[in-house]
Sequence to fold (653 residues):
Amino acid sequence: MNAVRPASIALHTGPLIDGDRSRLYFWLAICVATTALLTGASLLVGTSSIETSLGWLTSPDAQSSVILWQIRLPRTIGAWFAGALLGLGGAIAQGVFRNPLAEPYLLGTASGAALGVTLSLLAADASIAELAWAGKLGVTGAACVGAVAAIALTILLSRGVLQTANQLLAGIVVAFLLSAVTSLLLLTKPELWRAMQSFLLGSTGFLNWSSASLLGIVFCICALPAALFARGLDALSLGEDTAASLGLSLPKLRLCMLGILSLATAAAVGEVGVVGFVGLVAPHLVRESVAVNNRQLLLGAPLCGGALLQAADLVSRWVIHPAELPVGAVTAAVGGTYLVVLLWRRSRRE
Amino acid sequence: MVGGVRARGKRRAAPWFSLCVLVLAGCHAGVASGANVVRDDLQRDIHFEHAPQRIVTLLPSLTETVCALGACGRLVATDRYSNWPSQVLALPKAGGLDDAEIELIVSLKPDLVLLSRSERITDRLAELGIPSFALNTDRFADIARNITTVGNILGVPERASILNDTITDEVNAIGAQARAARHGAEPTVYFEVDPTPYAAGPGSFIGELLTQLGTRNIVSADLGAFPKLNPEYVVRENPDVIFIADKDAQHLSDRPGWADIRAVRERRLCSFESDVSDTIVRPGPRVADGMHAMADCLRRVNP
Fold:
């Protein structure tokens, strides 16, 4: 059993083996079924009791149909796509950096997005001429631009896409630098702290159809090329020298993968804020359940991440309704617990 | 639970109030010589040998309270957010409550630092031998209580009681007028503190003002002072009037489902300039101004 489970939290940098296909398909079917179930449940869970929501479904009026079809459904679908993008980003990051702790925010995206949001909030508040561009972008656009800019800065500082260790270090440096700038800016406008905190804890509350469809489009743009390059990641998992000797163009592979990573993360962060742990946990959850190669992982991690964020969204609006928990706090609690269990199980096995 | 705290506050108030009256009765010109012992909201007994003459305030509402008691001249520094009355703008700024500039405060040699509860700062100031006095400034009732307390510390209790009477009369008049104008109708209101969305619940200072204006808050008291709401809740409650920051008001109908809310559909929105909104969010002596602005807007959008 252990022999066919090469992926592990302690060390997954070894070659990934083609897993048992039927088990994989069974598992993916479970993910899809969970998503369908959660989508259905999301129509029933909100500020009203489940009985009331059921009543709305059978005999809708103007207000209840707005709540069901303009608020609850786009919210849960948007949450799925955001989670899927984060899961995909996590799988790519762990493959490219061959590090089980890699996650979508590794290259400074979260701090970059936070800085973008701060600038846009400042612009909206103070109408400073130099910040007019940030105001026009809105919170979502500013977060995207900030995330992409942070990745670009990281790659620039690490002098190219090939330097794995440099990139990780540069990512940390960029994250700290941008956070420092954000803190300094917020010091001048303390009333923005609360908005900032909500962004940093993630929020699915205002996802509408246009944000859900934007996330959907970005997911399609990211998922297809990621699947095409998955074999390259498999070769990379054998080590950079081996991969190069197999005729793999490492710069091209890494550049494409980092491009997909930044697009996926930027879109997700822009729409739902810095939701933690989904990108880290989703790939691990897939690997723990079925032995997979990278292509299967790039398929499984988004399905799993989507269902995870959907579930977290459901919990966040249900636990203390009609008030709401920050969705990132829910994912952190659930994801953190899962990682602890995973570590504990592994150490006991060894 | 809130009721319990308030009741305790009242019980606590009685002994020192009478003590102050006794002390003040025994000396001339309202300046207490000897022990004027006042208990602050950190339950510390603070001794005042004489009325403080060099005061640092670390909260705008306390700056305003000191100035409204005619003691603006005794301020030597304020926090960076204090901006009323305009004469305090010229004073040194000693940071904020969370990041007070201890060194600057020490260098000004104050004989009193007024602040709200922040043990980190009061402990540090105590180590450095600088007296500080902590006051809760969250609720409507805190306004009158703090004016009385600060008035006693400053040696101007008569002024404090006149100020309190004025504020009470104005607030009551504005409330009564607003309720009478609507003939008992209770519009439902949603006060957005922050677009994520956080609301001001009935237990918050803002919520208390809204209640006195005869409106019904869509947020129930059990959700706490500033709950983070599920946006769907606001759509369901369909408030008659929304209080919201100007920059967010323009984008309200972009939020999913919000275009159908009565207040949004009929543009029954109240936004305030920052100098006016200061009077609404700060539980201080200008509370009547803030309430007046809210009542004006309610009359305009919900006749």
Q: What stands out?
A: The first helix of chain A runs from residue 21 to 44. Confidence is low (pLDDT under 50) at residues 1-16 of chain A.
